[in-house]
Amino acid sequence: MPRSVIPSRGRKKKTELAAKLLVGWREWVVLPQLGIDAIKAKIDTGARTSAVHAFNIEPFHKDGEYWVRFDVHPLQRNDEVYKTCEAEVVDYRWVTNSGGGKEKRFVIVTMLRVGSDAWPIEVTLTDRDQMGFRMLLGRTAMERRLVVDPALSYCLGKSRRKKRIGKSRLVHGAVSIGAEEE
């Protein structure tokens, strides 16, 4: 009988894998410390750093610390809705963007909520206005927490937004994958 090409990882590896949250290549996430209740994120294992679309970026000092104020368009293809955010700057570093160019970006730490799990992540602030997603979740933020299945989308449900049911009724709230509509 031929041997398996994939080596056995043992019981410990299986337990570690089972403890991770399964996500698709795109998911709705929450940035509660920034007041962003829903933003569609591309889950990108090829990117090391996470990024959020930010504009009107203004650094300032608060209680002797370096902070940044910025606006975010949390919804794709909607430039009218925005949220003004403030966060402490933890770094200002060079980042290689998707086009291969280098740019200097402010780095903040904020809580990320994916499904019912939450943890702090580093996020860079950049103009993603021309990109398909307002947020990119990089592999550093996913380490030891998420497993990505690129064949799936929105494993954890859709955002809290109005959803038309029938001809005239609107329903507010989260829509879970596999949940039946009323």
Question: What does this molecule look like?
Answer:
- By secondary structure, the chain is mostly beta strands.
- The protein has a single domain, classed as Cathepsin D, subunit A, domain 1, CATH 2.40.70.
- The chain has helices at residues 10-18, 139-142, and strands at 21-23, 26-31, 36-44, 50-53, 55-62, 65-72, 83-96, 102-114, 117-126, 135-138, 146-148, 163-165, 169-171.
- It has a nine-stranded mixed beta sheet. It has a two-stranded parallel sheet with strand order 1-11. The protein has a two-stranded antiparallel ribbon with strand order 12-13.
- Residues 1-7 and 161-182 have low confidence and may be disordered.
Write the layout of secondary structure elements.
Layout: H1 10-18, E1 21-23, E2 26-31, E3 36-44, E4 50-53, E5 55-62, E6 65-72, E7 83-96, E8 102-114, E9 117-126, E10 135-138, H2 139-142, E11 146-148, E12 163-165, E13 169-171
Parallel strand pairs: 1-11, 3-10, 4-9
Antiparallel strand pairs: 2-3, 4-10, 5-6, 6-7, 7-8, 8-9, 12-13
